[in-house]
Amino acid sequence: MIGETMSRLEGKVAIITGAGAGIGRASMERFAEEGALVVGIGRTYEKLEQTKAQLQDKGLKCHIVGGDVSTWEGASEAFDAAFKVHGRVDVLLNSAGVGYSWAKVSAGSMANVVDTPVDKWREVMAINLDSIFYMCKLAIPKMLATGGGSIINISSILAVKGLADGHTYCATKAGVENLTRSLCMAWAAQGIRANCVAPGWTATDMIQDVMHMFDDPQVAKSLSPMLRPGTALEIANGCLYLASDEASYCNGSVLTIDGGNTAG
């Protein structure tokens, strides 16, 4: 990335969900650049192959595993396959999730409570929150067996900010943050650190349809004092810090990366 070999994650095995796009894909690359042995999980294998090709073009290695981590069966199968690649897990990055773009695939999923069908509430809960429960449930015993590890869960600034719509999404992200704090309380003494990264507006496919809002300077200012969205790489760098030993005393925290959106 910056013209030299780095090793902040040298030899660590990192399992990353949502590896087929956005923050998950960027984290696959950054973790691999820093010496991690990365295994990416995603439900769309074509996108995973694109991630792998992107890393290979830069001389980096990775493994990919197809699977839907929004169900216990899917998560179990995907985790087992990912774990078998290297026989351990030192870092778990839960990046799988859906946002506003999901409404195009699943009508009503990003509506308010009244307009959200019950099955859409459960659907988004499964993808954004249940998946993290499943992956942590699977990974923590493996981490305990090898002396600990680092769990990073992708939250959102909307965990602490209300919206007129997207109610299920907001609720899932609030759940992610308090689940993470609870993980910290349960296993900190056994060497497992659990932290969140809470992105603000980030230029990924998830919000591509509303990125035009940054074209209006007044609207852009309300979204970020920096007048631009963040990049997947900028979020991945935050994940990298929490995964590394540099964050050895960082536990139960929420690292907000939002260009200043929540500062005012």
CATH topology: Rossmann fold
Distance between the terminal alpha carbons, to the nearest Å?
33 Å
> How many strand elements?
7
Report the CATH C-level class.
Alpha Beta
The SSE string, one letter per element, is EHEHEHEHHEHEHHE
Q: Uncertain runs with pLDDT below 50, 5 residues or more?
A: none
Helical run tally: 8
CATH superfamily: NAD(P)-binding Rossmann-like Domain
Structural class from helices and strands? alpha/beta
Strand % is: 5-15%
The biggest sheet, with number of strands, parallel, antiparallel or mixed sense and barrel status, is: 7 strands, parallel
Walk me through the structure.
InterPro entries: NAD(P)-bd_dom_sf, Sc_DH/Rdtase_CS, SDR_fam. It comes from Bradyrhizobium uaiense. Pfam families: adh_short_C2. The chain has 264 residues and is α/β, with parallel strands linked by helices. It has a single domain, classed as NAD(P)-binding Rossmann-like Domain (Rossmann fold, 3-Layer(aba) Sandwich). Helix 6 links the parallel strand 5 and strand 6.
List the helices and strands and how they pair.
Layout: E1 13-17, H1 22-33, E2 37-42, H2 45-57, E3 63-66, H3 72-86, E4 91-94, H4 102-105, H5 118-145, E5 149-154, H6 167-187, E6 192-199, H7 217-223, H8 232-243, E7 254-257
Helix pairs in contact: 1-2, 1-8, 3-5, 5-6
Tag the structure with descriptive keywords.
alpha/beta; globular; 42% helix
